[in-house]
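job 3f2a | input accepted
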Amino acid sequence: MKVVITGGAGFIGSNAAARHLARGNEVVILDNLSRKGAQNNVTWLKSFGGDLRLIQADVRDAGAVAGAFREAADAEVVLHLAGQVAVTTSVLNPRDDFESNALGTFNVLEAARTLPRLRAFLFASTNKVYGGMEDVGIVERGGRYAYASLPEGVDENQQLDFHSPYGCCYAADTDILTRSGWKRFYELGPDDDVLTYSLERKTAEFQRPTAHFAFPYTGKMYVQTNRRLKTCVTPNHKMLVAWDCTHWALERPRLAEAQQIAGKPMAYLLAAEVEGGIDRDSFTLPGGKAGKHKHRFQDRAIPMDDWLRFLGWYLAEGHCYQNAKTGNCSVTLTTRYRTAEAVAVMRAVGLSPCVYRHHVTATSRRLYEYLRPFGKSYQKYIPQEVKDLSPARLRVLLIALLDGDGNVQSKNSWRYTTVSRRLADDVQEIALKCGMAASIAQDREGFYRVSICTTRTAQCNLDRDRSEWVDYSGMVYCVEVPNSVVMVRQNGHAYFSGNSKGAADQYTVDYARIYGLPTVTMRQSAIYGPRQLGVEDQGWVAWFCIAAALGRRITIYGDGMQVRDVLWVDDLLDAYDRAIGAIDRVRGQVFNLGGGPDNTLAIRDVIRILEERLGRPLGPHFDAWRPGDQRVFIAGIGKAKRELGWAPRVGPAEGVDRLLEWVQANRELFADLYG
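job 3f2a | predicted structure (675 res):
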């Protein structure tokens, strides 16, 4: 039997490869060898002999994955173990997390569809898809955190939260900014790109969502109020915030749960420099015939900035008219105090205006035909071809609009007024594309007021708590994008906030349902064992053993009472074997794989065990909680026991002893890796 293992040079992958090589199976490893110690694991695997092949490739590279699977076209089993697994990395570098996990899994699933002999596809997911489970009570018992009412742990029916790093969701009346303007989440189509924010480059850009989420939700929603901001999100939603900010940006921005920052002084990001946009030097006014049997006018090029100044004036102060008797068409700008400026604007686009009282009028059938679809005052809008322009061009239009129907509020803020809701939306959109914060409100007289400000951040709760929890019952929505942050609008206020995550897990389930692929998703808890070259933010049991053996400082984030159910790697691989053997019965299903309630460890327990084995104190250092860390997670493994006939065999104390012995026997390996 041939087995393809993505991430085969990693901890679980190398153990799985060793097991299959020992059975005489052909093993193909697909790994980019980027993780510390991966090459050491490959060297170890080669010592087994057998039919082992390494293909050095990255699952994010669709072409490389497809090519690898073509070379292994007769594979019967795929173990998809590659991915970015550290919670802290997913928060600090969400783009890499997305590409490694969601995009990588998509590429592997697509390649697996081409395997004619495929019997089983196993995906190593994570318990992090269940999120913080804020609806589940947590208590302290004997110096450890525990579930108040889940004695058997969390089963597969627990609502998914995709907590690390981003959770659902937004209220149903939330808008999201697309290339074609503001839309509700439920109005998004498959071809809609949405405005996102890159935490790496500190700029905004449009991206295509990779997943759409919609869930019924009944419970509390977090509402943060500020004169420039008003949110309405689920408690577990990830907000883009910072402790400090300048007028232009957040300092050390992070994504934090709404419930974690509730009531605390925080700064939010309302706008950013937007990448892209079309930079045209000229606008082409379409030609046409003046009338039946009359002269045909050619298309005419107008300098873009001149055109945008005219368009801004027209949308603010203009109207067009056709005389019913003569058929003559005219365009008029109305102004009482800026007549000379209006005349100059019209002449710049090739018109010959005349002035009558406070009206500046010129005749032009071509211009009339172009402007007529914009409608009257209540119907006006900015055409899409203009909204697609670069920020530099849009600033010209915005200034012209503000010169017409705007007024100065302060040295860095303005207010634009219109009776057209569509035009108000468009003005807010172009202001945001110009890197300015903008919000919309409707006054008692029915006027829409667009408040625009060059200050891109908003600070909340500085003097008092202006947040609240409100009851909600209805649908909530979100999307997933590569940059992991999207521009949304709630109650007229636009701001950047986190998106949802969890596509890899869902893709694997859906490929069984839609394409009949024999997939099984394993939502794994804390796996540990030999060949785990642990680091501080992933593989914590192994890292504690390594640090203790090498005399390194151990840092505990939080209070050390966090509890995990731990599972020895050989027990995990036994579950893999059972799932492959029962694939006809369990295909398309999801299983929790962890130690379960009988195999739990608190962080402090591991320190105590290691101190007893080594005969010396470790003196761990304590630091603040990290984003995404759960106080307790214990997998409910009842389904795996029933459906797979499987149960863990190695207890926590025995497992820690085994792992410490392996680390001590390989001190030279760790000395080379960790210096």
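job 3f2a | The two ends are 40 Å apart (CA to CA).
job 3f2a | closed
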